[in-house]
Amino acid sequence: MKVVYTDVLVIGGGLAGLRVAVGVKRRGLDALILSLVPAKRSHSAAAQGGMQASLGNSAMGAGDNEDVHFEDTVRGSDWGADQRVVRMFVNTAPKAVRELAAWGVPWSRVARGDRESVVNAQKITITENDDAHGLITARDFGGTKKWRTCYTSDGTGHTMLYALGDQAIAHGIPVLERQEALSLIHDGGRCHGAVVRDLITGELTAYLARATTIATGGYGRIYKVSTNAIICEGTGIALALETGVAPLGNMEAVQFHPTAIITAGILTTEGCRGDGGVLRDVDGHRFMPDYEPEKKELASRDVVSRRMTEHMRKGKGVPSRYGEHLWLDITGLGRAHIEKNLREVKDICEYFLGIDPVTEWIPVRPTQHYSMGGIRTDHTGQSPTLKGLFSCGEAACWDLHGFNRLGGNSVAETVVAGMLVAEYIADFCESEAGAVSVGSDLVRHFIEREQRRLDELLGRGEGESATELRDRMEAVMMDKVGIFRTGEELESAVSELRELLVRSRNIAVRTGTRGANPELVTAYRVQKMLKIALCVAQGALLRTESRGAHFREDFPQRNDRDWLKRTLATWADEADDLPSIGYEDIDVNAMELPPGFRGYGTRNHVDHPDTETRLAEVEQIVDGLGAADRFRRQEALMEYASLLPEKYRGRNERLLEKLP
Amino acid sequence: MTGNGEAVARGEGAAGRRLRISVLRYNPQDPQSRPHLQTFEVEEAPSMTLFVALNDIRDHQEPSLQFDFVCRAGICGSCAMLINGRPGLACRTLTSSLGERITLAPLPFFELIGDLSVNTGKWMRGMSERLEAWIHASGEVDIARLEERMEPELAEQIYELERCIECGCCLAACGTARMREGFVGAVGLNKIARLRLDPRDRRSDADYYDLIGDDNGVFGCMTLLGCQDVCPKNLDLQTQIAYMRRKMLRAAILPAS
Amino acid sequence: MGIPSDLAVGAALTKRRSGRFWPARLDFLESASGLFLALFLWVHLFAEASILLGKDAMYRVTMFFEGYYIFGTPYPIIITLFSLFILAVVVLHAVLAVRRIPVSYRQYRVYRDHHKLMHHEDTSLWWVQVYTGFALFFLVSVHLYTMISQPANIGPYASSDRVVSEWMWPLYVLLLVTAVVHAAVGSYRVAVKWGWLPARDPAVGRRRLKWLMRGLIVFFLLLGFTSLGAYMKIGIEHRDQVGERYVPTWQQESTPPAGDMGVRP
Question: Which of B7, B10, B144 sits opposite A355 (nearest CB)?
């Protein structure tokens, strides 16, 4: 039995995992990262667009601050987010950008003077102030009041990942590549580490740690068409689910990105629309203003995706042999702009479509893009029920995004949560609760269990084909648990997924090798993915309302009265073929920003009984403070600073808000 | 202006060809295994990339076939392999751009994991450690305060060099690296050029000279330009290496500066 | 939030060693010596081509190189000394270049296979340099040995006789081809290596340089072969008077009508 000890085990080498590892290392703890792929190949690299942080340096971002960012995020989440977490996040995001700047991210900068830009398909001139010259600039993204998205041309995620990857190397943090965690080692109340399979040799090793962190990203690959990297299969999240103890939150909240190219499902960044690109239908008509006269193409992602689908259903889609699509037109931006700021988009069009976006329209359609759901954690990133298990980034339901995430907030979440959770983990490790106390019997039990499972897959002569089950699952999710959902379809989805899950217990692997064996990998991953898929489908079926990205055609209203709560899914017994679904109320009375109209379509929601009282209360508090500054006002409405690690509590300096 | 993605909708170059894809197979983990070419026949589909073709083979013909894809969108650098003898990213190579007979082999130079899968990550980490390829700042920065300013053009120049995805194509295409295994390659030299350009990295040319001023570094480069001509990101490696060569020569001639 | 200061100072600083600047110097010397030899070759080919303007022209050029126009009398020893110098540069260049070539059969095979598989011009060009360089080392040595040992035997007749009657022309054909190719390819490679490009856009610059390289090869091969042809023609015509030296026309008027025959015993 091979056992490796460390202080902090980090599963996942993307932005969130790297930042956690660097953070705990700086607190003097040992960290060890396990990754399916080399860290710099993580899916974080694909985030082209940018990272939201209210620096307010550029002219179009002037006047931006934490309050505006907070409101945008809460509205965007359709009031599903934990507002204290949102506050922690918006206050730390500027610090995260600046830290990354110090670590070498070549953020695009403000250039003084006039420049041409395209807003709402109109050419405008933006004049940047002298005193902002050389500071980090920002671009426009959907769902935000200010231009807030910091970026590096069109390679933001790449540059952030490389800067953090380099920091991990500089700090001497080992990143063990091609290692896959198969299960967490736990005793029902405390997580002690993980059983890990070496994808090259097939060897199983127990990694024991004071704290285990899952930062494995989302579960987009349970869908047939997804913008996610093919490693984003949700198997990291399934580790927590399979403990039977740790709950997953809001798994039904799945975001579709409006503009992925057809066939490959590769994302073209929201920056395309942020910079002035428009959507057109089969007649070449720009249709978004018809639906959303104010925000047009830059409405929230869920809204744009739904409007696009709606428009295609009206027969306005462009038919093709890959199904219907619409056009993304960025020809108005000009060659210079596209070749400099949207080069990846141009590359993708050339390599995967054979077209030039400078002169031709891009065929796009809404495609699965982001998983708001994930391992439910408290504000420290720790599972509420399984001590020692932490999670952050897309893998977690921290809950920053509620039922819909704003573009640019996910990349920001990875590093911000990484910074904060690293501190809480370090605190945890330094506390009594963080002491290691695991018996070798427990470790042996888990290793043997995993070995037995692998042996069963390898030893079964006849059985189900893993790829067949996977293909079917992907199709069911795409067709029945997509952008528009109905009770009938969801029921049929759940029943078919259950059937697939049962069949998956009888998968036979034809290739007998114990070492590198892609077929075996698919087999055990499909078993996990089906559980995740069931959490999504079952959660969606039970949630009889529409909120954020979760849209029920049979229940189109947002219903705060019955559904202002977070879905919690657990897998109580290994033999179960359905998750147990529970709920966690979201307290209106603790909200800084009580639920209201999100600002899309027509006002159409059922209020929570407490909403009115809380609104009055908020008004009273604000009135009572008179001319107090925004910090005092905020503090009076919802105190959160005490939740932050002390070193990150301070205010952020801006051009217009100098620190003493 | 009419939409012209129709080429895609039509499925360009798909005229029902039957591709014959030969893959160099070898599993170093298995003592019985010997390197050999195995040929698979695949029905070409419209807009088919090698990513699609290889997955098709694995799903329907040979489940043990090893290869690496992550982003499948040309951004992560996982899937570099020899495509008809030349290094390239498989995920963004359309089969329509190739003949009916396609030969795939693992990237040379790197440790072979099996079939088309090679351990580029391990080599890249080693290179980063050897070249200390991270920003060497001086002192702590107060992240609550305004960030240090940078000229917009400089930020763009740095990004230009930062676009490297460490796919390993430059090393596989490099005759120097193939003969001299300690050579840091274009990826390493480009990284140093990027750090040198960055005012946040406080090292001097003399410091960089210690890292790349030998025959495993910039003076080992024989200017074969394989790197320049295969780089999937079209990085101007030739110019960067030449620039570093001049700067390092200067550091050698005028060590005091 | 910088990184800890122990990381800020590169560990490299501690491993400085004496002689660490040699790789830079050697790399530069290799390029510089190569470029010098290429320039010399081109001048040499032009000088040699003076035969195309007539025997007198070539005679004058010979006299010039022997220092006649400076000292008033020709000193063939200058040729000897200069040839020795060139030989030294050639040896230096060869020694520096040899560091690059495959040192084992394994390396040789790796490179050979690599360049066959890559179908990449610059990769193949270096292979050309290895082969031409190897050949040149021998060809140039023979040629230079002649120049060093018989410095006086340069002239319209002496050179022609050497080409034809002393059977040196096969050597000169090989030498011409290999030297012209090696010099042009090498100069192109030096320019790219150090980034001296005749355009802002490096792709354009490299393309231009490559055309220049091809142009130089064609031009100097044409020039060289035409000159060689001229020497051969003279050599064939002069086959029966081997050993006789050329007397320029302006001196011929003052000598007996026997002309050339009378100059030497």
Answer: B7
Which residues touch B144 (CB under 8 Å, ≥6 apart)?
Answer: A95, A98, A650, A651, A652, A653, A659
User: DSSP label at A437?
Assistant: -
Q: Are residues B208 and B154 in the same domain?
A: yes
Model pLDDT for residues C120-135, shown as the tens digit of each residue = 999 999 999 999 999 9
Q: From the CA of C8, how many Å to the nearest CA of chain A?
A: 9
- Residue C43 falls inside a structural domain: no
Measured between CA atoms, the residue of chain B closest to residue C117 is: B85
* Chain segment B20-72, per-residue pLDDT in tens: 999 999 999 889 999 999 999 999 988 889 999 999 999 999 999 999 999 99
B185: CATH: 1.10.1060.10
Q: Which of B78, B94, B118 marks a domain boundary?
A: B118
B141, B92: one domain = no
Q: For residues B202 and B231, state if they share a domain.
A: yes
Catalytic residue among A19, A273, A365, A633: A273
Task: Give residues with Cβ within 8 angstroms of C200, minimum separation 6.
Answer: none
Place A554 in a pLDDT band, splitting at 50, 70 and 90. Answer: very high
Is residue A186 among the annotated active site residues?
no
Give B213's pLDDT tier (boundaries 50, 70, 90): very high
Question: Residue B96 sits in which domain range?
Answer: 13-118
Would you call A273 a catalytic residue per the annotation?
A: yes
Confidence at residue A356, expressed as pLDDT on a 0 to 100 scale: 92
What value does the mean pLDDT of chain A take?
A: 94
Residue C164 domain boundaries? 71-246
CATH code (residue C120) = 1.20.1300.10
Cα of B149 to nearest chain A Cα, Å: 5
Residues of C in contact with B138 (CB under 8 A): 2, 5, 8
Q: Copy the structure tokens of residue A620.
A: 């009273």
Same domain, B146 and B83: no
Nearest to B109 by CA among B119, B98, B99: B119
What is residue A248's DSSP assignment?
E
pLDDT tens for each residue of A598-632: 877 777 899 999 999 999 999 999 999 988 899 99
How many domains is chain B partitioned into structurally? 2
**Model confidence over A280-332: pLDDT tens digits?**
999 999 999 999 998 899 888 888 998 999 999 899 999 887 788 999 999 99
pLDDT digits (tens, 9 = 90+) for A184-236: 999 999 999 999 999 999 999 999 999 999 999 999 999 999 999 999 999 99
C161 pLDDT tier (thresholds 50, 70, 90): very high
State the CB neighbour count (10 A cutoff) for residue B63.
20
| Reduced DSSP (H G I as helix, E B as strand, rest coil) percent helix, strand, coil of chain C, to 5 | 75, 0, 25
Query: Are residues B142 and B235 located together in one domain of the fold?
Result: yes
Q: Which two tokens mark A65?
A: 């601050």
Amino acid at A586: I
Which of A91, A97, A109, A361 should be substituted to probe chain B, the one whose Cβ sees the most B Cβ atoms within 10 Å?
A109
Query: Are B34 and B136 in a shared domain?
Result: no
- Same domain? For B111 and B141 the reply is no
**3 state DSSP class of A606:** strand
What mean pLDDT comes out for the span C47-52? 95
So what's the pLDDT on residue A170? 96
Count of domains observed in chain C: 1
Over 60: is that where the pLDDT of B151 sits?
Answer: yes
My answer on whether B113 and B205 are in the same domain is no
Numbers of helices and strands, H then E, in chain C: 11, 0
